[in-house]
Amino acid sequence: MHRRGDDGSSAALDSRLRARLYAGFTATLLTLSAAACGPSATSDAPEDDKGRPAPRTGFSVRYEPPSAPDRASAAFLRGRRVLERASAEVNTFGQAVAVTVVGRSCGGEGSAYDPGARRIEICYDDVAQERELFEDAGVRPADDEVTAVLAETFFHEAGHALADALGLDLGDRAEEDAADQFAALMLIRRGAAGERQLRVAAREYELSAAGEAGAGPADEGDRDEHSSDLVRATNHLCYLYGADPARNTDLVGTKLLSRERAGRCGEEWRGVREAWQKRLASVAVPSDGSDRSDSRPRKAKRRPGSTETGRGRGCRSD
Q: Which helix (H) or strand (E) holds 23?
């Protein structure tokens, strides 16, 4: 404790200390105010999964904390790095749009693309759903199968995101088919491993169709803009055969891919590939760095229903 002296020197010292403390306190307040309110503040800026500012173009990935039932599924999705790898592959096209890819608990709503937020949502609960589907079919462990379906799901939603960026006016069914075709294109680009994953995705559609048939006719309200699961499975197998007939001859003459359809698959595949090559060329970042993407407002489409209607994929309407 400081004792006051008779000569007033202590009072003078106290006065100087108070002045210094006040000046320091004022400077601190000004610094904090500038950090909070100035142009350099970034608290509301989008961030990636590691807290870094999200890129201004391309697909970036982050994860939301899972609900308690989804913890194991969230860990699987992150551990397999499905979203990171697939996003990096789409980013090789150099598109001039920024799309956020979010892993999250969806409560059975199904993975989807939200055009209002330019955001792809991949659901943790899809992991458990797909695992159960394959395990019920006798596939154990089903880790690789689940990974394949998640990759195909992501590429399907990425197809919607690119259609949004391009301002494509295809109509509901045509856009869903185009998104499926983009998923097939991206998996086939991976070579033999990707072809195996596309076979798995086709098998998933086949299993889903069998499950729906066993549940009886669907209500009219459960129908959505997608082709039927069996049609989607057949299309994937057709693209596989069309891309490499020599490696996929075993697909021909099966209950899904007739010999008549197989005879047209080469032409179908070339049409799919060329259509997406032209679309991607128009969304790429030009050399001057300007944005060539279509910025017109786009009507959001309702995504498919809950898990009762199979894989929930499409565009989201909030």
A: helix 9-37
- pLDDT above 80 (res 308): no
Q: Which of 111, 63, 120 is nearest to 306 (CA)?
A: 111
Q: Side chain identity at 312, as an amino acid letter?
A: G
Tell me which residue range forms the domain holding 179: 58-287+300-309
In a domain, 34, yes or no: no
268 backbone dihedrals φ, ψ, rounded to 5°: -60, -45
| Dist. CA 313–CA 311, nearest whole Å | 6
Identity of residue 227: S
240-276 confidence digits (pLDDT tens): 999 999 999 999 999 999 999 999 999 999 999 999 9
Q: What are the structure tokens assigned to 260, written together?
A: 């008549």
Residue 23 lies in a domain: no
Paired tokens of 151 = 């990759």
- Rg of the chain over CA atoms, in angstroms? 27
Instruction: Confirm whether pTM is higher than 0.70.
Output: yes
116 neighbors 43 (Cβ within 8 angstroms): no
